[in-house]
From TrEMBL:
GO terms for cellular component: cytoplasm. This is Inositol 2-dehydrogenase/D-chiro-inositol 3-dehydrogenase. One of its GO terms (molecular function) is oxidoreductase activity. The lineage of its organism: Bacteria, Bacillati, Bacillota, Bacilli, Bacillales. It comes from the Bacteria. Residues 4-123 form the Gfo/Idh/MocA-like oxidoreductase N-terminal domain. The gene is iolG_4. Transmembrane segments: none annotated. Pfam families: GFO_IDH_MocA (PF01408), GFO_IDH_MocA_C3 (PF22725). Belongs to the Gfo/Idh/MocA family. PANTHER family: BINDING ROSSMANN FOLD OXIDOREDUCTASE, PUTATIVE (AFU_ORTHOLOGUE AFUA_2G10240)-RELATED, NAD(P)-BINDING ROSSMANN-FOLD SUPERFAMILY PROTEIN-RELATED. Residues 131-257 form the GFO/IDH/MocA-like oxidoreductase domain. Keywords: Oxidoreductase. InterPro entries: Gfo/Idh/MocA-like_OxRdtase_N (IPR000683), GFO_IDH_MocA-like_dom (IPR055170), NAD(P)-bd_dom_sf (IPR036291).
Length: 339
């Protein structure tokens, strides 16, 4: 079996996770990385024995040994980096969101569809065992027809100051595009339906300085879907107990809750604070296996020449809905989405 040679573009926190997971996959080699920070590049080169290290993405793509690239660069560069990789005939794994501008994404999808390369998008919750278990129950009719979905994504409050400092230097794309695309994708995936109307609200009570930066620390969205399901979405940066991702699905015959308590493991701690269940503290911990599973699926798709279930169109829909949420918040109005 031919060793697949993959390059990673971008070595931020998530890029480092993908680099390590690629390094540990069987039949795969972490052949190259590109990243602006030379010190980080040096550390990664030494830790994973990476033969080729670059500070420029396009230079990395000139590496003729590459079979595929994993794009974990800032969101605003994703579409450009996808198109450049396609020109080099590379398979592509791209982190969410696929892009920030609808027309730019559509043009990029046209290029993806003209190619015979595998394109995989990083919606890792689709590869989490808990979400897959819930999906199986829903698809087999065990909870009847879905009536309502409630989905939360709330980062630890310990990271709020860091985010404020980041937002002062460069825009994140906004809370809905930066964080809620995962919930939007989960809602579409579980219901097999499109989101047609959104109404968004938000607040900056914990970080008022974000008002001047056009950012939010807590946002909510009420959604109507084409199949008359109602969805409630919450995104925030102020969970005092850790990293809180929770999804509830209410059906006509039953109800599911995924991670109602964001428990770190099955251990209960009994001490002077009482009986305590430790919580997951960050996304790499909560979704560690999902990040591995999605890359395994990417490799499988390449070897079997099969396009993955998650598509570039899913990325487009996530961005379209997230932008509609931002429009709703900015204008304090209901927004109908026309695809």
């Amino acid at each position: 079996m031919k060793t697949l040679k993959i390059g990673v573009a971008g070595l931020g926190r998530l890029g480092l996770i993908h680099a390590e997971n690629i390094y540990n996959l069987k039949g795969v080699e972490l052949t190259a990385v590109s990243n602006l920070d030379e010190e980080v590049n040096k550390q990664v080169k030494e830790k994973y024995k990476v033969p080729n290290v670059y500070t420029n993405y396009e230079e990395m793509l000139e590496q003729t040994e590459l079979d595929a690239v994993c794009i974990v660069t800032p969101s605003g560069f994703h579409t450009e980096h996808i198109r450049l990789a396609l020109k080099k005939n590379l398979h592509i794994f791209c982190e969410k969101p696929i892009g920030l501008e609808v027309e730019d994404i559509k043009q990029t999808i046209d290029e993806i569809e003209k190619s015979d390369r595998i394109f995989h998008l990083g919606f890792m919750r689709r590869f989490d065992e808990d979400y897959l278990y819930a999906k199986e129950m829903i698809d087999s009719g065990q909870i009847g027809d879905i009536s309502l979905i409630r989905s939360y994504s709330i980062d630890p409050i310990q990271g709020l100051d860091s985010f404020v400092n980041f937002a002062k230097k460069s825009p994140s794309g906004g809370l809905f595009l930066d964080m809620s695309v995962h919930d939007i994708d989960v809602i579409r995936w579980l219901t097999k339906s499109e989101i047609s109307t959104v109404w968004a609200t938000g607040t900056n009570k914990a970080a008022p300085e974000l008002n001047e930066l056009n950012e939010l620390e807590l946002g909510t969205v009420t959604m109507k879907l084409d199949n008359d399901v109602t969805a409630l979405l919450v995104a925030g940066r102020t969970a005092s107990h850790g990293y809180h991702v929770e999804t509830e699905i209410i059906g006509t015959k039953g109800m599911l809750r995924i991670a109602a308590s964001p428990e770190k493991n099955k251990v209960a701690v009994f001490n002077e604070h009482g009986a305590i269940r430790p919580s997951s503290q960050h996304f790499p911990e909560r979704f560690a296996e999902a990040y591995v599973n999605e890359l395994k699926d990417f490799v499988r798709c390449i070897r079997e020449n099969q396009q993955p279930e998650v598509t570039a169109l899913d990325g487009l829909r996530g961005t379209e809905v997230a932008l509609a949420c931002q429009e709703s918040f900015d204008g304090n109005k209901l927004v109908d989405i026309h695809y």
